[in-house]
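tool_log.txt
---
The assistant was asked to compare two proteins side by side. It first ran the structure predictor on the initial sequence, then on the second. Raw inputs and outputs are pasted verbatim so the downstream comparison step can read them without reformatting.
(1)
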Amino acid sequence: MGNENGVVGYGLGKASEVTSAIAKGVEDAKKNLVKIPVLKGTIPHKQEARYSGSQVMIRPAAPGTGVIAGGAMRAVLESVGVKNVLAKSKGSSNPHNLVKATVAALLELRDAYSVAQVRGISMDKVFNG
């Protein structure tokens, strides 16, 4: 689940009925919400991540490209609010592992403001050296 404005979370719910399983999954996802940097409808930089047998690569794209991703990755990227991105999954296509690998890749993203803050320098110095 996500708010399409840079916040996303995932959860797993098990039950004998589909509606109660979905409710449990949503409840679990609300406990695991994280903030993702989204700049002008795309991500700040290229990132790769791995979870178990699934490996994912996400790359920023130009405006008008759309979300080029499949299945579980598309759902995660759209719920974050990313409008233009290129994504590829390698290895296992298990949806649970793909979601976890995609969220892991998104968590490793850093925008220029946070990099400047960590380094203790101005934004101008981040870009111009």
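(2)
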Amino acid sequence: MKNKVVVAMSGGVDSAVAAGLLQKKGYEVIGITMCFGLKESGKKRPSCCGIEGIEDARRVAHKLGIKHYVLNFDKYLQKEVIDNFISEYLSGRTPNPCVRCNEYLKFERLLDKARSLGAQYLATGHYARIVHSPQSTVHSKKYLLKKGRDKYKDQSYFLYRLKQEQLRHILFPLGSYTKTQVRAMAAELDLPVKDKPGSQEICFIPDDDYRAFLSRALRSKGLKIRPGPIVDSSGKVLGEHKGIPFYTIGQREGLGIAAGYPIYIIRMDSKENTIVAGKKEEAFSSGLIAGDLSFTNKAMKREIALRVKIRYNHREVPAKVSPESKNKLKVVFSQAQFAVTPGQSVVFYRGNTVIGGGIIESALKDAKIS
């Protein structure tokens, strides 16, 4: 019997090629598109994985001759991703909704659905790899999460919360290919989306305008975003902000401050409704504290030297990582890093292997490597 695999099909070229590759390898492929028909102003608004995405995924499935289903995940998106997105910004933190979508929707809800359909695997178009660990035995297989071969498209950062039980049932067919190769395969398979451009937008944010989205969401809850002072590190008032949720650490544009030199946000205090700004050098940190930890295998028990990434587009840096308390870690960088941002994920790597990560809680200004 053929192994059955569910492919999460967004309507984009990556997931389409993933489905085509698995079919060529002999899998019985089923396509599923997660539908997010969010309600805004009383109307249903098609979002990513909305009408266009569904139709494109359906056309790909028809071309490949595979079954295709659409599942309404709207309530899960709202509960697990959007509510957190709003509350984090209200708290002066900057969340990463893609990390939570992967954790709670794709690799929890959708994986459960795949298993209920009798599928052995769930596959996505992520640029990452899963390989057997050298520690595997005949009776106990262990898995490693690795970076994708295309260093410019590697998406392992967004997947650090995957656990062993999930890794054994997940396939990343694109992990060993470059984006250029994937485009070529889409053309070779003559897929309807072969020329479709990629999207970097947050799927539930219209026009990629998160400030407008937050304003509407908060109004619907009867909440108002309050302006407040922008001060320097000594407490001197420099100007006024339009509301804590509209800003992030390291931001320079849109502050409306003429200081004679570039001004950056270095800290935000949601309780006092105050933003602290200063010179660029003040926005650098020597380390951080991370919580809400997750590891692909075993939790960290002692100090260890790793490479860390403090946001998706940030270059990795060597660091010492050590347990701070039950579910917190202290990270000390080999050299100070710009704009360490609470709410973002810090991800730990050993070479090309993802060890795990956590949510940044606070930046450290005077940490030193022992």
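---
observation on (2): The chain is about 25% helix and 30% strand. Residues 262 and 279 are 6 Å apart (CA to CA).
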